[in-house]
Design a protein that fits this description.
Number of helices: 12
Order of helices and strands: HHHHHHHHHHHH
Helix content: over 70%
Largest sheet: none
Radius of gyration: 18 Å
Shape: globular
Number of strands: 0
Amino acid sequence: MSGDELFALAVSCFLSIFTWYAWYAPLATVERFGAPARGHILLIVAPVVSLAILFTVLKTLAASDVRDSAAYIGLYMLMGAAWTGGAMWLLPFLGISPGGDVAERHNEAAAIAVTGALVGSMLCFAGGNIGEGPGWWVVVASAGLATAVLALLINALDALTSVSDTITIERDLSAGTRFAALLAAAGLILGRGVAGDWVSFSATVQDLAVKAWPVVPLFAVAAAMERSARPTPLRPRPSVTAFGVLPGFLYVAAAILYVGSLGRPA
């Protein structure tokens, strides 16, 4: 490894330990004092699942010098852990707190939503690892672009629909399920949008615009869905199956079908 790669490894190692300690410590503390664990299992398992997704991508679709190198696999796995850990630190600014809403207030809807955010951010990072490139900074640039777009879309959705209040205040499981599926679907599309061999940052921006445009109408549909499916006095607890699982499945299925239609990244 070169000097800058060792520096990236050290920073990633520090950030991954710091962020994931902050993630797991509240869960462990609550469990130790005997509080109920509803929703906690999702936050325990989600990081493992997200890292498994990244490992699969690194072994099959990453640059040729990465796929067969344990050192580089370790570097990007640590970088991915730091990336998603940092993304989870930003969630409270979007209105949902893993520590407060899930660990302390045992909000299952928030646990589901946080899980979707974790998977979505990891899919953005995994997409940045796909294809040939000159170094780790290419991954950061590509994944950073995809993650920034995801964050902007989440902010816009919340401004239009107050979905974070529906999840955290009203504890609506159907909203948490829809939101989680939406973020996973969006992460898949955006990650695919930045995937491929590196040419330049401007070329990556262009690729994202050309290949990931369906994420905009996806969020438009989601905004309409949030407005029509939120709890009402006549429907205080919307059906999780009809208003959560079904639309969530359609979000993810549409994303998979679209990404599949693009073929293997070049």
